[in-house]
Structure formats: structure tokens, C-alpha cells
């Protein structure tokens, strides 16, 4: 007769691990905070094309860029110097990354925009910038960031909305736009910004956001200094006035210190591609500011285009 075995002894003990939460509170916060930060940076940068076109007539572009970053350094230093000293060993280890990021995002990007603003219209600048999210996505894809069909669809919808908004819905107006040498400079600026955004993914966690910002601002300004000296020697230094101080403070504090910090944080939270899609909202902000500030009329086609852009961004920026 087979002996009876206790069921407790026969059955192996199995410990069931509790199910892991689908999304931690931090990551859930990032899903919302990332797009909001990208939205804030995009809103601030919306004034850049108008400022670039305005200052291009009164200040040599290299001098505009140099003083922009000097102002940004002064604005950021009180908040980031202590952190930079703490993170200095990591900054030294990753000095190559810091220098490349500074060259792309600080030395080249905005300098190229200001050069472009001397010989092309703000409309052309905005139209070329409309392709930035696609180029950002391409650089990010090459760096291993995934591109989904939903994001690609959102990008296409938003891009069509941007182009239609800028051309006011007229194919004839789009085809007859006068492209100039400045547009080539803007294409170069777009490429440097896309490369900078994709490169942010490589920022080590041992370097805080403010430390990274201050280090890149300082390195970029140092690289601009010799070119600035040449510009002053050949073109003469500009004389500050009421027409230039305000715009310079805007691009130095808001468009540099604030917008670059929020953009870098957004890319860290949601990736370069999703942050880039939010960048499509720039012409929507420009149109709204023009309406509120100077009473520029908004047509039905513009409202429809802005709706398409917002829809595209909402689709493309989804997780």
C-alpha cells in the first residue's frame, strides 16, 4: 500500500511576487511635465525670429550672439555655480560632450539664426524651422530613439498645419516665396539644433541640469569670444540703446537661461523626438502673440491650421 503523503509536504512552496506598478509616480509626472516644459521653451523661443530680424539691422550677428550668452551666464551663474563645483569631476570626465554640446547649442545655433535674419524674412525663418522636429527625430533615431507610426503621423499632421499656416493656405504663395542666402544659414541652424537636442540624451546623470547648462554656456561663450573680437575690429562695437537692451535681455535671460533649461529637462524626461514634436507649436504662439500685442487679424484658415498643428502635436507627443 502506497503511503499517504501530506499535501503540505508534497507541494513545493511558491512565493508569488507582487505585481510591479505599471508606472511609478516619478515617471507618470514626467509624462506630463516633459511636454509642458517643451511647451514652455517653445513659447519663449517664439519671439526669437522676430528679435533676430529686428536686431539683424542694428547689431552684427556675432555680437548679438556673444552678448546673449554673456547675459545668460550672468543670469545662470548665481544658481548653478555651487552645483558646477560639486559636479566638476564628472564635468572634466565628460569634457568632450560638454564642448560639442556648447559648440552646437550655444556657439553655432543662434549665431546662425542671427546671420540668417540679416538676409531673409521672419516668415522664411519660421518655415525652415518648421522642419526642425523631423530633423530632430532623424538624429534621435540614428542615436537609438524609437520612432512609432503614431508619432510619425502626428509629425506629418503638424507639419502640414505649419506649412499651410505660414503660406496662408495658398499653394501659389508657397511656391512663389523668395528664398535667399539667409535661408541656407537657417538650414544650418536647424541642423545644429537637431544635433544638439539628440546629443542631450548622452548627458550623464552625474551632472545636474543647472551644472550642464552653466558649463555649456561658458564653453560656448569662450568659443565665440575670438569671433566676437574679429567682428568688433572689422565692424565696430554696437552702441547699446533702448531699442537693443530690451531684446538682448529677452534673448539672454528668457530665450537662453530659462528656455534652454526647460528644453534640456524636457528632452531628458520624454526624449528628443517627443519634445521636438511640441516645437511645431511655435507658429501658433507667434500668431497668438501677434493678435494680442498688435491686433493682427486671424483668419479662419489660420484657426483651422492651428487646430491641425495642435492635433498633430497631441497625437505625436502621446506616450
In short:
The chain is mainly alpha-helical and 319 residues long. The chain has 16 helices and no strands. The chain has helices at 7-10, 25-45, 48-55, 61-86, 88-93, 95-116, 122-129, 132-142, 149-166, 171-175, 181-199, 209-235, 242-270, 272-278, 282-294, 300-316.
Description:
The chain is mainly alpha-helical and 319 residues long. It has one domain. It is 76% helix and 0% strand. The protein contains 16 helices and no strands. It has helices at 7-10, 25-45, 48-55, 61-86, 88-93, 95-116, 122-129, 132-142, 149-166, 171-175, 181-199, 209-235, 242-270, 272-278, 282-294, 300-316. Helix 3 (48-55) crosses helix 7, helix 8 (132-142) runs antiparallel to helix 14 and helix 9 (149-166) runs antiparallel to helix 16. It is globular and about 50 Å long. The chain starts with 6 loop residues before the first helix and ends with a helix. Mean pLDDT is 79; it is low at 1-26.
Secondary structure elements and their pairing?
Elements: H1 7-10, H2 25-45, H3 48-55, H4 61-86, H5 88-93, H6 95-116, H7 122-129, H8 132-142, H9 149-166, H10 171-175, H11 181-199, H12 209-235, H13 242-270, H14 272-278, H15 282-294, H16 300-316
Helix pairs in contact: 2-13, 2-14, 3-6, 3-7, 4-6, 4-12, 4-13, 6-11, 6-12, 7-11, 8-11, 8-14, 9-16, 13-14
List the defining traits of the structure above.
319 residues, mainly alpha, 16 helices
Order of helices and strands: HHHHHHHHHHHHHHHH
Main beta sheet? none
**Tally of separate helices:** 16
Q: Give the integer mean of the pLDDT values.
A: 79
In whole angstroms, the N-to-C terminal distance is 63 Å
Number of domains: 1
Rg for CA atoms: 24 Å
In percent, how helical is the residue content?
A: over 70%
Task: Using the alpha-carbon principal axes, give the shape.
Answer: globular
% residues in beta strands: under 5%
Based on secondary structure, the structural category is: mainly alpha
Tell me how many strands there are: 0
Low-confidence stretches: 1-26
